[in-house]
Amino acid sequence: MGLDVLKAELPEFAKDLKLNLGSVVGNSKLPEQTLWGTVLACAIASRSPKVLRELEPEAKSHLSEEAFNAAKAAAAIMAMNNVYYRAMHLIGDPEYGNLRAGLRMNIMANPGAPKADFELWSLAVSAINGCGRCLESHEQVLRKEGVPRETIQEAIKIAAVVNAVGVTLESEAQLV
């Protein structure tokens, strides 16, 4: 099981991450598809080959093919959008908001998973990538869809822990 492998490979100084990984995934109240789509999108966004290798097969076993591809699509489109919208925001010139982005984002109209799941996966990836504008946008859509704040918080906790596990394991691998 991928989660167990990752927990076993975390060094003793990262015991909190080991406990948190088990908790945010193992004790999640999210529906299975929502949970594992979040885990997969965050594993991709973590940029950790180890985390992705361990969590992708487990996610695939819990997701339909459509949801699996939608979670991967959320990570892919947010990799682009988070850079673009974060940069437009950080430049600080509101006139950029009047310019057409001109970036294709067709997947957002029909991702192959329920809108709320895709938005939650996009929000979690945006948390990892640090795009405030995207976080605000996806949170507003989720709230309009009736998604409770606790669900949004849970996705962000998954993002935080999966990313931290990836950072820790990759940095430790460089020290060996």
Would you summarize the structure shown here?
The protein is mainly α. It contains eight helices and no strands.
Structure, explained:
- The chain has 176 residues and is mainly α.
- It is built from 8 helices and no strands.
- It has a single domain (30-95, 103-175), classed as AhpD-like.
- α1 (2-9) runs antiparallel to α2, α3 (32-45) packs antiparallel against α4 and α6 runs antiparallel to α7.
- The two termini are 24 Å apart.
- InterPro entries: AhpD, AhpD-like, AhpD_core, CMD-like.
Provide the residue-averaged pLDDT. 95
The profile of the biggest β sheet is: none
In CATH, the architecture is Up-down Bundle
Oligomer: single chain
Radius of gyration: 16 Å
Shape: globular
Instruction: Give me the CATH superfamily.
Output: AhpD-like
Topology, number of strands: 0
SS-based structural class?
A: mainly alpha
**Count of the domains:** 1
CATH classification, class level: Mainly Alpha
CATH topology: AhpD-like
pLDDT < 50 runs, ≥5 residues: none
Number of helices: 8
SSE order, one letter for each helix or strand: HHHHHHHH
Distance between the termini: 24 Å
Measured as a percent range, the helix fraction is: over 70%
Strand content: under 5%
